[in-house]
Amino acid sequence: MGRLIMNELIQRAARDIAGSGYTIALTGAGMSTESGIPDFRGPQGVWTKNPEAEKRAYRGYQDFLQDPGRYWKERLTSSTGALGELGAREPNPGHHALVELEKMGLLKCTITQNVDALHERAGTRHLLEYHGSFAKLRCVSCNARFRRDEFDLERLMREDRLPPRCSKCGGIVKGDTVGFGEPIPEDVANQSLEEAWKCDLMLICGTSAVVYPFANLPRIARQKTREAQREAAGSLAAMGRVPVVTIIEVNAEPTPLTQDGVSDYIIQGKTGDVLPAIAE
Ligand code: APR
Fold first, then answer.
1. Which of 56, 141, 165, 195 is 20 to 30 A (C-alpha) from 8?
2. What is this structure's pTM?
3. Which homologous superfamily is 1-37+90-131+184-280 in?
4. How far apart are CA 6 and CA 107, in angstroms?
5. How far is the CA of 113 from the centre of ligand 1 (A)?
6. For the segment 18-44, what is each residue's pLDDT rounded down to a tens digit?
7. Spacing, Cα 39 to ligand 1 middle (Å)
8. From 54, 208, 270, 275, mutation site for ligand 1 pocket: most ligand atoms within 8 A of C-beta
9. What contacts 3, CB < 8 A, 6 or more positions away?
10. CA-CA distance, 224 to 202, in Å (whole number)?
């Protein structure tokens, strides 16, 4: 994308956000590649380079359901793998720009698919971790979240007392990360839907928008405008009051949201460059 067009779109996005009443951000793995964490489907993505790994990932939740004890033994004994290194990664200027927009009172909520906890570490306060977090555990019965160090997992393994049990309801506790085929935790799913309905601007950063149900959220926001236009059709006055949602993508490449006209425009570039420029 040419520099001139890029700058014009950044100015336009800044004006749109400044003029919005309720902006939310939706983020994906593209936010974290500049922190050294590979994404999944980009040119250097984890699934792009190792389709086998994606197939294994599809079985993770089934394995847990079949035998939670074995799931935990494997988790505690296997090499740390990609998730293990996440703790050593730092937020990048893209994460910090979203914190800036939140501090300005413009960004009301960030809904992320990332499990790397980088938004939290950058200081985002209103955060929904749609696919959970590698740094947390979750009770599958009552959805209580725990930090990993709230359980002595090694001792539970030595005493053959895995899986860990929820201190609130006695339910089985697993890693908070939501696996393929695993339902999105109900509290986060409901809050995310509410945000998608409430927003009048959605800033979608660093996601290929191919994984559902997350990829439904922009379509739900777009749908709200279409329904309101249908209701208001016929009365010009009402048309002026239709709650218009502006959907902006910041992504290295176009996505189905671009192709399907769900987003109003895409700023094609790196989130670590574009988001700070918008915040500025
Ligand atoms: N700036 C902007 N966009 C980027 C950058 C960057 N620095 N780096 C990569 N991208 C883009 C890629 O081109 C791609 O379109 O970000 C997108 C990342 O898409 P995916 O790798 O599919 O990641 P994501 O959309 O978050 O995947 C969704 O799939 O594997 C599951 O649960 C996992 O949460 C993940 C979900």
1. 195
2. 0.94
3. TPP-binding domain (3.40.50.1220)
4. 22
5. 9
6. 999 999 999 999 999 999 999 999 999
7. 5
8. 208
9. none
10. 13
